[in-house]
Amino acid sequence: MSATSFLRDFHEVAKIGATPNAGVDRQAATAEDRLTREWFRAFAQQRGWEVRVDGIGNQFALIEFEPGAPHILLGSHLDSQPLGGRFDGAYGVIAALHAADRIAQRVAAGGPRPEVNLAVVNWFNEEGGRFAPSIMGSSVFAGLMDEQQMLQVRDLAGVSVAEALGEIGYLGTDARPEIAGYAEIHIEQGRILEREATPIGAVDYSWYTQKLDIEVLGEQSHTGQPRWLIGTTHSLGPRR
Ligand SMILES: [Zn+2]
Fold first, then answer.
1. Which pTM was predicted?
2. Tens digit of each residue's pLDDT (9 = 90 or more) over 13-64
3. Distance CA 228, CA 202 (A)
4. How far is the CA of 84 from the centre of ligand 1 (A)?
5. Alpha-carbon distance 55 to 102, whole Å?
6. Which of 55, 61, 170, 229 could serve as 120's disulfide partner, Cβ 3.0–4.6 Å?
């Protein structure tokens, strides 16, 4: 493994769902998402790693060093927004695969044997472009969202998560790996690194998004003083 082979893989994956402006369109459980999953699976299988898909479509590649030991999990997501960037998520998954491969090669060559196992993950529907809410696969994995409830979520065409995953062959039944830790390389999520001219950063926490659909009931009348107000009390809706 080398920088050259990493870049070759990175550019290969960026071709899947490529958009004219050098971005990608790989919304969750679409044909393009399936192609990135096939690429991920091939990478793992060529190296003899075990591949698993859980009940919400998260894809794992597992490398065993110590039978029965928990896994250090690395990864990110290969799905994208309808007009996503090529680095978002993909960098983290491909970098994790290459890092894991490097470690496996060192161990195979007689290097120090890790006390834990390694796993690389491609989270399902991290972006939420097709199925809301986003961070779906990782939240189900972490026990923050209910798997059965998420499988019933429908896209704008009425297709459920369960149907869409079944369609691309990724509605799995495999056990989730037991993990001892998780690391993810990701493009920065704010402007602070650029503002402070820091080339790379490690975050120790992140913010959790909560997206609300709010229906405002009222009546449009004239500019100036509205006939209804939203605000000072806990109720939403027309007030006179
Ligand atoms: Zn991302």
1. 0.85
2. 999 999 999 999 999 999 999 999 999 999 999 999 999 999 999 999 999 9
3. 46
4. 9
5. 29
6. 61
Q: What's the pLDDT score for residue 224? A: 65
Per-residue model confidence (pLDDT) at position 201: 84
Q: How many Å apart are CA 54 and CA 230, to the nearest integer?
A: 43
Q: Which residues contact 143 (CB under 8 A, 6 or more apart)?
A: none
147-150, long-range: CB < 8 A, 24+ apart? 147/55, 147/56, 150/56
Contact 122, 110 (CB under 8 A): no
Q: How far is the CA of 186 from the centre of ligand 1 (A)?
A: 7
What pLDDT is recorded for position 233? 40
Give residue limits of the domains in the chain: 3-195
How far apart, in Å, are the Cα atoms of 113 and each of 72, 109, 121, 192, 218?
A: 14, 10, 22, 38, 66
Distance 223 CA to ligand 1 centre (A): 41
Q: Specify the amino acid at residue 23.
A: G
Low-confidence ranges of the chain (pLDDT < 70): 1, 189, 208, 223-240
Q: How far is the CA of 110 from the centre of ligand 1 (A)?
A: 36
What's the Cα-to-Cα distance from 213 to each of 38, 43, 148, 208, 219, rounded to whole Å? Answer: 35, 40, 22, 17, 19
Q: What is the pLDDT of residue 35?
A: 98
Given a contact cutoff of 8 angstroms between Cβ atoms, the answer to whether 30 and 80 are in contact is no
Question: How many angstroms separate the CA atoms of 132 and 122, rounded?
Answer: 18
